[in-house]
């Protein structure tokens, strides 16, 4: 089986292809975000399942992207406190969709979201070009602002208790 016909990837290979940590890819598999088959003690990820996660086809023969002169990459970490699990899930979906829509496919944003239920805190890690990162940060600012309604479920339940 040649490299062109490859159908299964290891967790390490997927992590390298996506620019993620191996632990992150394992968590995606355990959480059901990425389908995988367990062979012995290791997971194997099908090429189609990887494409479904990323929203773009995998191409083993594609050359490594080279940085143009003056290319800038930004890394940002956004921390949001007092966020319930449902709101965190909605925000994660919005951010992931926002990062994939209308962007230059040659330089996609890389996003990772982590939610700490104990501290009701969410962190969003963003890696990518300066303009695309700024656009996404602007979107996040709008989503978590006081008029967004993202926190409505928590604030309306406490307001309702105050009125009784």
Blueprint (SSEs and pairs):
Elements: E1 8-10, H1 11-18, H2 22-31, E2 37-39, E3 42-46, H3 47-54, E4 73-81, H4 85-100, E5 110-116, E6 121-129, H5 130-144, H6 152-163
Antiparallel strand pairs: 1-3, 2-3, 4-6, 5-6
For the structure shown, list the relevant keywords:
single chain; 164 residues; alpha+beta; 6 helices; 6 strands
- The percent range for helix content is 40-55%
Return Rg in Å.
19 Å
Note poorly predicted spans. 154-164
Order of helices and strands: EHHEEHEHEEHH
- Label the overall shape: globular
Describe the structure.
The chain has 164 residues and is of the alpha+beta class. It is 42% helix and 22% strand. The protein contains 6 helices and 6 strands; from the N terminus they run E-H-H-E-E-H-E-H-E-E-H-H. The chain has helices spanning 11-18, 22-31, 47-54, 85-100, 130-144, 152-163, and strands at 8-10, 37-39, 42-46, 73-81, 110-116, 121-129. The strands form 2 sheets. A 3-stranded antiparallel beta sheet has the order 1-3-2. A 3-stranded antiparallel beta sheet has the order 4-6-5, with helices on one face. Helix 1 crosses helix 2 (22-31). The longest helix has 16 residues, at 85-100. The protein is globular, with a radius of gyration of 19 Å. The termini are far apart. The model is unreliable at 154-164 (pLDDT under 50).
